[in-house]
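Page 37, top half.
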Amino acid sequence: MASAPYRTQRVMSIQSHVVSGYVGNKAATFPLQLLGFDVDVVNSVHFSNHTGYPDGFEGDVLGGEQLRKILEGLNRNGLLQGIDHLLTGYIGSESFLRAVLEVLKTLRSSNEGCRYVCDPVLGDNGKFYCPPELVDIYREEVIPLANVVTPNQFEVEQLTGVKVRNISDARRACDALHNLGPDLVFITSIIFDRETVVSVNGDTAMTILASSRRKGNDGGDEIWRIDSPVINGTYTGTGDLCSALLLAWTAKESEGLASAMEKVCGSMW
């Protein structure tokens, strides 16, 4: 009996683009391609550099109508058929974020199983990277439609109102996000308060937490945790890379969250 022909899985990645540096789509696209995925890239902004530079940045923020035009062109030419995954990252305007929901609806109209991995990029280290008004849109409109959500510590606190000081707080925050809709919550980086901080070989550790909610009669949460030594320095694009790797490895190992998480963290390290 002949086996079914192999079909490359397709990802639509809607994230930022910078000329200098590797964040957003420049951080996510190549790893996905390397792992065997075909990536359709949509840039939410076109900036000279990422927004953390002390002397600012220049460039353009796309609005919702521009995204709708791109969607219209792709749809008219039959190029939206068979997209298996939608990945979203940095988005710079409210109208664009709401238009993402139209993209998702269109993708799911031709592929009901299209999986949505949402990285709700808001900021880090107590600082917003994008308009704070996006928090409510993510919480009330976007995350309820996502299968996977990948916030960092700052973002999960903004979205849930839970101050994450220890592992119990982190589990409560995961529970709050599960209750919004996603089956898989992946908190990409947590530094606990000094009283409860973890160490790896004497070094301060960063905690990565994955929580999967099983549906049906045997429902419950499957929770995995990895503690990784903090490497001194300033790094950008790590969250974008992490979300792309998580999409890839959970697609390849859909029944093995622990193994997928190990591969993601091993690649990041």
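Page 37, bottom half:
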Amino acid sequence: MRLEFSIPLLLLGTLSVCLALPWVAEEYPNPMVNPNKCGSNIDGETLWLCDPDSVLGTDTSSVLSTVKDVNLNANCVCNCTESPDVGYVVGVAVAEFITSQHDDQTASLEAFSQTVRENWFETSSCDDKILLLMVKNDSQIHLALGSRINEILPSEILDNIDRDIEPLLEASKYTEALELTLRQLDLAISERVGVYATGTDSTGMTTEEPPEPDNLVWGILGVIAIMSILIFHYWIKY
């Protein structure tokens, strides 16, 4: 959201000033509805990225390519029997300022990102949509995760991502920070999906419940028990 106005100057003529105002979550644009406002088009294709304040500069092609690649190759995380080729979806929202809805800035980021995520993505039985919100004024990237993604991603993985991107954000390397977040998030989800599929984690340890004994084992144990009872009665009788 921007306000444009002109300031007359005695020597320099008229200077046009462009002022970025804090975004309200409900008014933040959807890249699929307003691709021109978001700058979300690459090679004629609209992607899940919105940067209405041009925080990333004029060249957003590298981030758009990463968003495209991650979504194109995203793993299925639920309802995979019915739709094995349908993966999770990640979107990126970038802003210079956002409105503070809470005294705590983290709570404001969480509320803003969750509202935008809900506005962007349709509600479905598989809540596997992710929104990355990067706010320049706060030098933070906040993740709003669908319930299914929350189930499979341990909090320590998210903490590790935060730690890795912190130096990039402090150096105002916003493009690199977003790309690293997208790549690490995709890698983490792929690994966790592999854990659920194979029953082993990265160390080779099993993550499944121990298998129940089959019917043959129970049958053998039953025969042994019966024979033991018969032998015991025979021994007492004779």
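Margin note: Residues 158 and 211 are 32 Å apart (CA to CA).
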